[in-house]
Amino acid sequence: MILVSKRYEIAGNLTNSAHCTVMCDCQNKGEVLMTTKNTNEEVIFKSRKDFRAFVAEDGNEMLEEIMGSKIQILSVSESSLGEQPDILAVANIHEKTIIECDLKQNIKTLANLLMHTAAYKAKHIIWCINQETPEAMETANMLSKFNQHEVKLYVVKCHIENNEVKLKALIKPDPNNYQKPAGKITDTKQKQNEFWQAFSGYINDKNLPIKITPAPQHWQYITIGISGVSIQLTVNTSKNNLGCELLIANNKELFKKLEVDKARIEKQLKNINLDWQALEGKKSSRIRTTLDFDITDKENLEQGFIWLIDTANRFKEVFTEYLKGEANG
């Protein structure tokens, strides 16, 4: 047996055309065909959903090694229609990253990648494939030579190496052709970073089940196990407030569904005043609340930390009740 991770097991021997089974926590099963060609071995997932789940759950560290930067997964799509990115992530703390997973490399997927890249103003494209095709590789290779200062393209293939499922880069940006813009951190960014550093320390000291990545930015994402939905914590130094919001990516119908239960949701949240923002003309929607707070007031930081933690917990408890059918399988 090959142990891939706690969530995935590939059972069976690595022999020519041996059939194996992939299992995850939700008991979705998909056949995997492993073929050995000299020292090169390939993995073929039965469904795109299985492949997408593997990349999101087990491929994160391998993608980080390929890119040379930290990656945080924001959402994983349950749909295969291409309306949403398969996986939406951030790299280098704040750079949006679009990840699409193809069983067999399809040139149409590249069009989706470019569409999502424009919509989310992404800086990185990762095209994960199980089997490459000459036409698509030629197009991707040509595209990778353009706009490397704006968007970086990776083509990554899944394969078996030393009895382990691995991801390897077939195409990656030439570091000699890309220079990350240099810039001095602003006073505002410095304040944001100091606040999140202190907040992270508070969370760790209290041993709370909240994970953030301190950085010079105004936001932090908290995943809640629902595709395309997350809780976002924010700081605003110009308006002197803290924010907590339910962020819904690329799903206006889901926002409308919640809006139907607006009165009940607000009653359950009791003393929290909600601002329901459909954000017309944009792909995302949000439901947020704020607290007047000066993050430079070091003596009262704990008050802000407690508010963020309590509000995020209440958001998660109440909103997930109305989003049960949307939870990832």
Which properties best describe this structure?
alpha+beta, five-stranded antiparallel β-sheet, 16 strands, Yope Regulator, Chain: A
What's the short story on this structure?
The chain is an alpha+beta fold and 329 residues long. Helix content is 31%, strand content 31%. The strands form two sheets. Strands 1, 2, 3, 4, 5, 6, 7, 8, 9, 10 and 11 form an eleven-stranded mixed sheet that branches. Strands 12-13-14-16-15 form a five-stranded antiparallel sheet, with helices on one face.
- How large is the radius of gyration? 21 Å
Q: Tell me the count of domains.
A: 2
Order of helices and strands: EEEEEHHEEEHEHEEHEEEHHEEH
Regions with little confidence, pLDDT below 50 for 5+ residues: 1-41, 178-182
CATH-defined topology of the largest domain: Yope Regulator, Chain: A
Gap between N and C termini: 24 Å
